[in-house]
């Protein structure tokens, strides 16, 4: 009998196969983006011409407290970001808690306070929730589910179908920070300089980008499965291959050291406060300058472009290495580091 593996929650190939073979056909899902655009709405602030976005996510990170954050702000920021990269203005969240008997009440208070602060920082409201408690040994302390709803202005249309050869690929910040921060706490490792999670709400950065130029083609947040998985999904959706350049990837010395020490591919490490955008070459340079005016975009970089159509490379992601070679970048098959978010 086939059974669920940890890799089915990795964001990589096993998870994609599970979604494609089970959830997608059973639920009739046509769009597997970060958020679903569900219907038009004229209900907000007396204004007309909005679409509505909805998303949901569950958080099971271990440990629940890690350098730079905890499961509380991770839950809020992760849901805000899923809405943001769909081009939506996040408005309201729900929060569901599954608590294990014996979980310290003081820790729960810290997590809830952090969630409240994170929601205020992102400019969203937590308006509904639920709490369940299971017997000791039936969970792992605390799991949180958050759902979010937001509005999309009608003239914003993001999608892989808009991508064409020559478009540029931008990443908004340093990659690999969150995954290395959680790993270091879990395994008692330390790196110099210290690595902190990049968990942060991206909605104001996205608002800045959209205000500058609403013709951005597509955005994704590279969480589970890292930059590699997000780029692969973009390539498959667009029907073109992508080329990225090793020397253009932005990362910190601490993350680089961790990857070299542990033999981990930096492109497979989870992130919680950066986005990937595909934009036309005409606006890429000026958009990058605009992004750098926001604290979450100060390390933004153009890392590659969309290649010309080649049926033999349809949907491929290729990395040009610093020594002049080329290798194929794919989704991770299994789970490098389970329970990362």
Give a description of the structure.
This protein has 341 residues and is α+β, with helices and mostly antiparallel strands. Helices cover 30% and strands 24% of the residues. The protein contains eight helices and 14 strands. A seven-stranded mixed beta sheet has the order 9-11-8-12-10-13-14. A five-stranded mixed beta sheet has the order 1-2-7-5-6, with helices on one face. β5 (89-100), α3 and β6 form a beta-alpha-beta unit. α2 (71-84) packs parallel to α3. The longest helix is centred in the N-terminal third of the chain and has 18 residues, at 105-122. It is globular, with a radius of gyration of 19 Å. The model is unreliable at 41-46 (pLDDT under 50).
List keywords for this structure.
341 residues; 14 strands; alpha+beta; globular; five-stranded mixed β-sheet; single chain
- For the termini, the CA-CA separation is 28 Å
- Spans of at least 5 consecutive residues whose pLDDT stays below 50 are 41-46
Strand order of the largest sheet: 9-11-8-12-10-13-14
* Derived structural class: alpha+beta
N to C succession of SSEs: HEEEEHEHEEEHHEHEHEHEEE
Question: Could you estimate the helical fraction of the residues in percent?
Answer: 25-40%
Largest sheet features: 7 strands, mixed
